Amino acid sequence: MTTTFPSRAVLLGLILGLAACSVPDGPVDVHDPYETRNRKVHEFNKGLDRSVVRPVARAYGTAVPQPVRAGVANFADYLDTPKYILNDVAQGNGRDAVHNVFRFAFNTVFGFGVLDPATEAGLERRSTGFGETLYVWGVPEGAYLEAPVFGPSTERDTAGRIVDIVTNPVSYVLEDEAAAIPIVAGALTGLNARYEFGDTIDSVLYESADSYAQTRSIYLQNRRFELGQETDDFDFDPYEDFE
Amino acid sequence: MTYDLTRRLVLGGLSGGLAVAALPAAAISSAEAEVLVQRVVADINAVINSGKSERAMYADFERIFRRYGDVGVIARATLGPDARRASRAQMREFSEAFAGYLARKYGKRFREFVGGQVTVMGARQVKNYSEVFTTVNLRGQSPFEVRFRVSDRSGKDLFFDMVIEGISLGKTERTEIGALLDRNRGDIDAMIAALKTRG
Fold first, then answer.
1. Is A185 an 8 Å CB contact of chain B?
2. If B171 and its partner were Cys, which of A14, B12, B30, B71 is the partner (CB 3.0–4.6 Å)?
3. CB-CB: which of A45, A221, A226 is closest to B168?
């Protein structure tokens, strides 16, 4: 990482600006002012999935035994743990910070980073990132965005992802060629997920009447659930109009 | 892309018209709701460990869905405001087609549950319904949460939504049925015909 501090600060300012940019007038379930552009990106992503991601994920899933793939996924999570701790602290969540410190130490000593004995010991994975930190700080979700390659997101989560990349403590420890390790581990973990949940992902992308709308709905519902965000007003209540 | 969309992907509706005189709200207790979901879960566990063929399992799921779920009300709600212009016969046919579609679509997902276990964790009262929490443990995966939303507003204790890691079957299917109707240029009969081949 050779980024100098001022440029990083400028980037952070831009990101926070972006995260604050689009807020709907009233409460809405889906805020998607960039739908036209998002749909183009979605078609691009589907093409990429069909021609590259899915076949490569299949090859990876078939050629590499499951325990090895699980080890790679554990390692990617392990490398992300310092980032979780940093964000736990930024969120004022001391419990999770301590949890993740112990988890990291435990898996370093007993798991060499590739096994996950901590989960067995009751220190399960508790991932977080700067997107969640922004949520805790009160930054609104912003508009829905579908990003090339990375897929569904929101303005807030996109800002979070960029900050996560820039601030990841591990990237400051690893130098030169070693800096590529977390990126490779992350990419392989993504391929593993594409393989493991292949049927479900296929059904959303290739069997839906409108795969863009399905992806958007599923992403937003699940993301809000992860964040513990209140969604009561938009819950499904089929009796509403009967009363 | 879409790596965040994992096994949680499943299920998902808006309400149509039809005003019915308001019944006195004797909301279902969370204990009663829990009993209902215990039965649903026992039935699901029995099917996924029955060793039956896929087709036979779909039929079993459809029976469970019809028995414990408020199918007609869910179907009407997924159709949204368009339910108002549907005839009684169309609504009946749509409801039938919808039940079969759901059984096929989610039956495929439940297949991944074979050898797994669904456990009821507890229940809570929310506004005018009850929410029952269950945990699903599948081999080689971290456990995840499925919530059943149960109401007696139809006069019987029935579930009206299932929420997997925050993803509501009612909401997701409302989006899907709306899209299917758009694809068929708003023609309800054509949409029903298409629904029969899906899932």
1. no
2. B12
3. A221
